[in-house]
């Protein structure tokens, strides 16, 4: 059967290909497809069920309806099952990942944005239900829990306190002078402003300018953490020997490199050349890049520059934390801090510190 050709809409074979359960097919058509669709093996031979689902939505569901359903998913009005139901699909059999479905519909980026918003919404709702706030890190009992976690993991309630595994060598300065947080309007502040201006210019060239607001917010969180522990935070630090890139944040007392890959151009995860889904996303961006410099920049960031940065961090075995939530929630940053800002080997995998 030609991949683009669909069975008669509402027929038993059509519903089976759309993932409907045996009982639902019987209820809708009066036809029993059999256990594991055994009665329809001949008709279904050679049919790619995943491709069929994508074609069903592409050919039969209006774009406006698809985008509306995706927005409702983003705002947590629909869960995965509800989203599929809205599109005439079910996940009873032959499951299809939402990312695969929407990438096949050329809405991969829109889905990733919606999925991040949905995850944040679910996380926020859960936090509010459990703690009465969407940021439990600020609650006294949560601060106490984080302190206990640090004590269990590192031997002291605070990272640099006596007895901590970090205490002996943690205050050792890395080569070069640390850039400290300084008052606005001071001479040092003017120098910092120049540094920030250069950083913003770099972001414009890299196509990641929109991430600057979230970086500023994360910087404030890190400064709060660092001040509490007698440490400093460096922005746009370079270590030519080990990591010849301008890392977003560096804490010299812990020799800790922190990157915020919050922009969509970072793909929301490490690019893996042998991962089929990553290949499809890269192909989509490459095609869109024929008409858009924005996508060409993003493709270079995700599949080339981020890969080189990860390899450099791996080669140098850096203490390396990469955060992926660039929204105002900074959910993974809050979680990392609540756990005591543990060391990371995120060049191995995302969130190695969990």
**H-E order:** HHHHHHHHHHHHEEEHHEH
Class from helix and strand fractions: alpha+beta
What does the largest sheet look like? 4 strands, mixed
Q: C-alpha Rg, in Å?
A: 25 Å
Estimate the global geometry from the Cα principal axes. Answer: elongated
Beta-strand percentage range: 5-15%
Per DSSP, the total helix count is 15
Structure description:
The protein is an alpha+beta fold and 354 residues long. 51% of the residues lie in helices and 7% in strands. It contains 15 helices and four strands. The protein has a four-stranded mixed beta sheet with strand order 1-2-3-4. Helix 5 packs antiparallel against helix 6, helix 5 runs parallel beside helix 8 and helix 13 runs antiparallel to helix 14. The relative contact order is 0.08.
Compose a concise summary of this entry.
This protein is an alpha+beta fold and 354 residues long. 51% of the residues lie in helices and 7% in strands.
Keywords:
354 residues, 4 strands, elongated, alpha+beta, four-stranded mixed beta sheet
